[in-house]
Design a protein that fits this description.
The structure is a homodimer.
Chain A (H helix, E strand, L loop, with lengths): L15 H12 L3 E5 L4 E4 L8 H9 L4 H9 L2 H7 L4 E3 L10 E8 L2 E9 L7 H40 L6 H10 L8 E7 L6 H13 L5 E7 L2 E7 L6 H20 L5 E4 L9 H17 L19 H11 L4 H13 L3 H10 L4 H8 L3 H15 L6 H21 L1
Chain A binds a DNA duplex (30 and 30 nucleotides) through helix 14.
DNA sequence: ATTTTTTTTGTAAAATTAAACAAAGAAGGT
DNA sequence: ACCTTCTTTGTTTAATTTTACAAAAAAAAT
């Protein structure tokens, strides 16, 4: 390896801070050291020159999300993850980032963290680049220590989380005690999130997940675990105004990033209602699993729904189906329409389905059906006539909708 | 009594036809004899002069419905039911009725039928009036015979009907056999109707019911019976285009007539789906009773609904309630809105209820709430904001609707 | 083969609904 | 008592939806 004799970093440092100061002195630039998830580990203080991005990072003890996003988009982070060479980043005023150079800290094939050098007044030379690489090598051991400490804590938290999920902790004090011993402040309100992946989650993907979760700054994640193809999170809902909207954004963003950054597709995200009692985590978990199961049955209809609260009539599909079956009820209107469709091979049933799915909006439904709005109007008049339906009556509409979807589901089952 | 010696009708007649001919000869006018329900019993044939109403009556073997309605409206029938004196009816061209005189046939305090004398070329004298009264007296016995024969048949049909209603006749041939022995042609499709009265149905009201049912000409009533405060009908649905619409009209008309003609109010009418299998009468009966029970729970919401098929979401209220209870689910949006209402004593919940009940029609809802449409719009924006609701999403709307109605029902229970 | 009925599409006018503002009263907080 | 925010209503304009009518293609009936 390239440990040269004149490696100024080949010594024992008390702490990462000490190393940061040393690098800063050698390169004559401000320095920050982050872990793999862009959380601040250490920064040099002897130099007062800096840029807004660095200030924000130090204040928040983490790199701001928009900076991370920008660095992903423009390729810096992917580059750092694929090479041990220092990477130069151009000035990006829109996010307050001055010129800088970064290098990743490696252990085997894994990135443990990053060292950032802000080029305020100077530009690093080739020689300084190789010094920076040596500094990265030197930081490795300290980061490893941190990681093993973290791993131990993680193991304990995993066990605790599973006890909560399976309802093995009923006592309030016990739950609070556990949180405290893990140095987690339990939020007063929470939501449980489940991301269902298409395949079992590999160690590699687990790292990616961990990265995305830690760099997220919208939600405080209290606990998380992975169960074969599901990622399960316990998330604080405190101090969030439009909780569902925010959760929606968060899960979509997560799914988007997994696809965009790591090429992992087909993740189904789901989140529970807001709860205030940690004894209800089991309930929240089952609620989430129920949503996943319903989404499997009606993927199209529920593709934009991620939580039980917004499932609408689909909350009830199991019992609706059961009742219909036990009553052997037949929707008379649908029967008449079906008979007409058969006889004239028309598609009134499909027309009705789309119309109702589009919430009785003629324009939207016509677009979906690729027909003129007047055509749809004509068909609806025929449907009203033939099926003895009154579209002014919301009760008739909901019955038809339910029975159409039940029929669709049952037809699927028969295949 | 006024049996005079020169009563030409004081003899034994072979049949009512013979009596009709005799009256016709004596009064020199065409004569028809009807039972209490305006069904044709006999008519004179020796005279060819007549009017359109009489022709229609003879052809259809009953007085046309519109003629009956007109005679009620204009007071002839009420008069005939209250006096034993002959009543003169003026020409009514719009229903094809020429001048005529009618007298009712009495047994004690009950009207058994009517004799109609058409005054084609002449006008009856006072003397002829009293002859007519004698003729009515003479017709009494023949009508009584008919009635007892009918009663026997009715008794048998009642027993048969109850066997069907309680599902004690499973065998098809057996059912068909019973119909034939009662000289009823079973229709290939039928509906079961139940009219629920506020009080038990007295003998007097039973007669009124019988009258209304027999004079109706929209639906062929195969069987009917009375069970304390319920009138139950088995009605043919054959050859009717818009079955539900027609049934709706029929039951409303019945309720209207009971109120208008006999002052009997608060009748709740209900009818079953259309069935083709007489083994399903029990099912149809239970279906009807279920609708009655739901209508009791949600009288306002279901006041214009008379059949299971059109109940919409109310078909499912029992199981929806059950599921909500067993899940101890709380609608988050409603919770937020309720909290807001409490704090600011506003009425967002009520606003939302009316809005959804009016099928998201802003104008209708604003009218119902007695506020300006802009006010409602403003409130809806607030509701969307506070309750985190999206009114573009039909699933969210239906959830809210269901939970509002469930809440309403439960609040009622707690009183 | 031809007549009738059903279905689709287009255009334009009428009607309804939604959005944008402004004004003013009511309610809440300091 | 004063200021701010919330709520209601009115007016106007813009946008959208509904309706009416006509033409023509397609399907069904005779």
């Amino acid at each position: 390896m390239n440990y040269s004799l004149n490696d100024p970093f080949k010594m024992d440092f008390e702490s990462l801070e000490e190393l940061a100061e040393m690098i800063s002195q050698v390169l004559e630039c401000p320095v920050t050291i982050e872990d793999a998830n862009h959380r601040l580990l250490a920064y040099s203080t002897h130099d007062e020159r800096t840029d807004p991005a660095r200030i924000a990072t130090i204040i928040g003890r983490r790199v701001p999300e928009k900076v991370i996003n920008q660095l992903w988009k423009e390729g810096t982070i992917p580059a750092l993850l694929s090479t041990k060479e220092p990477i130069r980043v151009k000035n990006m005023d829109e996010i307050g980032l001055g010129h800088r150079v970064a290098v990743s800290i490696w252990k085997q094939e894994e990135v443990l963290g990053f060292i950032w050098v802000i080029e305020i007044d100077k530009t690093l030379t080739e020689e300084e680049y190789s010094l920076l690489k040596k500094a990265a090598e030197s930081a490795k051991n300290k980061l490893l220590q941190l990681q093993t400490r973290k791993n131990k804590k993680e193991e304990r938290s995993q066990e605790f989380f599973w006890k909560l999920l399976t309802g093995h902790l009923a006592n309030h004090e016990e739950i609070t005690g556990n949180f405290h011993s893990l140095q987690i402040t339990p939020a007063s309100s929470y939501s449980l999130l489940v991301f269902q992946f298409k395949h079992n989650i590999s160690g590699k993907i687990e790292q990616n997940i961990s990265y995305l979760l830690t760099t997220n700054q919208r939600f405080k994640i209290m606990l998380y675990t992975i169960d074969s193809n599901q990622l399960i999170l316990l998330v604080s809902a405190d101090n969030i105004r439009h909780t569902f909207e925010e959760l929606n954004y968060f899960v979509r963003q997560f799914v988007f990033n997994m696809s965009e950054r790591y090429g992992v597709n087909e993740i189904t995200p789901v989140y529970s209602s807001i709860y205030y009692d940690y004894g209800k985590i089991k309930h929240a978990y089952h609620e989430s699993l129920e949503v996943l199961s319903i989404k499997e049955k009606f993927p199209e209809e529920t593709k934009d729904i991620h939580t039980y609260q917004k499932l609408g009539i689909y909350q009830f599909f199991d019992i609706l189906l059961q009742k219909r079956k036990s009553n052997d009820f037949e929707n008379y209107s649908l029967k008449l329409l079906y008979q007409y469709d058969q006889k004239h091979n028309s598609n009134l049933i499909e027309t009705l389905d789309v119309f109702l799915t589009k919430d009785a909006n003629i324009n939207d439904a016509a677009k979906e059906l690729n027909v003129h709005a007047n055509t749809l109007n004509y068909r609806l008049k025929r449907i009203a006539e033939i099926g003895e339906v009154d579209f002014k009556d919301p009760n008739q509409k909901i019955s038809l909708y339910i029975d159409l979807k039940l029929r669709k589901y049952q037809n699927m089952q028969h295949l």
